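Our preliminary data section would be incomplete without showing what the modeling component actually yields. Below, a chain of 570 amino acids is followed by its predicted structure, encoded as C-alpha cells that our downstream tools consume directly.
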Amino acid sequence: MTIKHVREQLKRFISSNEPEVLALKGKWGVGKTYTWNTILGESKKNDEIGMPKYVYLSLFGLSSLSDVRYSLFEQSISKDLIGEPPSLETFSKNTVSLGQSLGKKCAKYLKFLPQFQTSHGSFESLPFFAVKDTLICIDDLERRSNTLEIRDLLGLITTLKEQKNCKVIILLNDGEDRIEDYEKYREKVVDLELIFEPTPQECADIAFAHSGFIKANLSPLTHLLGIKNIRVLKKIERLYHLISELIQDYHPDIQKQVICSLVLFGWSHYRAGDKDIPTLEYIENLGYKLHGLDSNQDLSAEETLWNSILQKYGYMTTDELNKALIAFVKRGYLIHDEIEKPALILQSQIQAQEATGSFSNAWKVYHDSFNVEQDEVVRTLYDSFKTNVDHISPLNLNGTVILFRELGEHELADELIDLYIGHHGENPDYMNLKNYPFSGDITDETLRLKFEAKNSSLTRRQSPIEVLHRISRNNSWNPEDEDILAAVNAEEFYELFKSESGSDLSDIVNMCLKFGRFQNSNEKQQAISNNSTEALKRIARESKVNELRVRKFGVFLNEESHAENSGATD
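Predicted structure:
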C-alpha cells in the first residue's frame, strides 16, 4: 500500500467519531510513528479530529493491564493540546480537564468502593473509568514486558472500542517476535489493517524533509541501496552534518567520495546483523575482491551477494580516506586529523592528475568493457602509471602489480615496482610498510621484498634527528627507530636538543620522554627516556631560565625542586 493510500485511510480514521480499531503494520523503522504524528498534526491544524481527547501510549516497560489502564488516563490530553510543547499552562489546562472527567466518575462509583476494590483488586484502576470518547495510539507492542499478554491487551482494546466509544490505532513492527497472539486474535479485534510499505525514495523524503540540499545529495544514494529505515537515514544524516564543514573546501571528487562512502558505511554499521547487507568489517578488508584479483575463489553466498551490492553501488576498494571514514562511523565522533591527512594527500593527487590524466580513469579500460583487448589494458595502465607515479599510493601500486601478474606481465610488474621506488625511495613513510596503515593489503611478495630492502638502506643512513622528526610528525615508529635512538647517549641528546629551535623542539623532546611513560616500556625505550632526561637536566643546570624551560616537560633537577614547585602551585 502506498503512502498516499495510507494517508487517506489515517485521515479518515482520525476525522471520524465512530469507535474503531485500526492496525498499521510495517517493517521496523520505516516511519509508521512519524507518519501517524504528521497526519495527526495536520488533522489538528484543520480541526478534523473526531474525538475530544487523545492518548499516545508506548507499551515499553509496561508489565500489566493495570499499568495500561492507568497510563491511558494519565497520558490523556485534550485534542487542542496535541503537538503542544509541555508548559505550566498546558499542564494546568489538561489537569483541570482530567480532574473534571475523573470527578464525575468518582461521584458515581465512590459509594461502591468496597465492592470495587474486591472485584477490581485495586483503587488504582478507578481512573480508567474516566477514559472514554478518546483517540488512542498504542505503540511499541513488541517492547512490552513479558508479563503483559497480547491477548489480554487485545481484550482491553475491545473494551475501549465497544464500551468506551474509543478509536484505537495499533502500530506494529511486521516480522518481529512476540506478536504471535496478535496474528491469532486480530480478526476478532481489528477492523482494518493497513500495510505500510513506503519505497526507499518515500522514506528518504520523510527522513530528509527539512533540508533540500541533503535530500538532493543523500537520497539518490540511499535509494540506490534500498534503505527504508528512517532511523538509519537520520543517523546517516547526522554523520554528514558532523563532517560537512570539514570537507567543504576539498575537491568535489573528495566531497563526492565522502558522501557516497558515509551512506554505505552508515547503512552497514547501523544495520549490523542483517545478512543481506555487507558488514563494515567486510568492506574495510575488501582488498581486490571486486577487481577479480582475489586469490580466494571460494566466496560464500553472502559474499557473492555483498559483492554484487557493492558493485552496483559503484564501490570498488577501501582506500586510505575510506579507512578513516570507517573509523569515524564506528566511533560516532570526528577526529579532524584522521580525515584531513588522507584527504589532503588525495587532494594533491587529484589536482596533479587533472593536469596529466587520472590514473583511476585509466582503470576504466579494465572495468567498463569486455571489448578492450589485454594489450590495450596493459598499455593504458602502464602509461598512466608512469605519468602519475608521484601521486600513486603503495596500495594502488600493489593492485596494478597484481593485475599485471595475473595477465602474465611479470617483467612490466617488476618495472612498475622499480619505477615507484625510484620516485619514492628516499621517503621512509612510503618504504616502511610496517608503518603503512594498509600493510596487510600489500600482498605482492616481490613488492614487499623490494620495499623492505630499500627501507633497510634508508634506516642505516637516517640520523637520530631525522628519525625524531619523522616519528614526532607521524606519531608512529618501528623497532629500527628504537635501535637508532637507544644508541644515542646523554651527551649526544644534549647536542641534539641544543641544535634544535622553533616549534619542532617541543615535539622532539616530548617524543623522547614519551618512551619512558609507557606502562610496559622495554629496555630500549627506557634508555631513550633516561638519556634524553639526563640531557635535559644538563641544560637546566646552565641557567635559571633553562631550568624553567625544562620544567615545562616535567623534568626537574631534583626531587626538592619538584616538591617546591608542586607546593607553589597548591
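Residues 475-569 form one domain. Confidence is low (pLDDT under 50) at residues 109-123, 559-570. Preliminary results of this kind motivate Aim 1 of the renewal.
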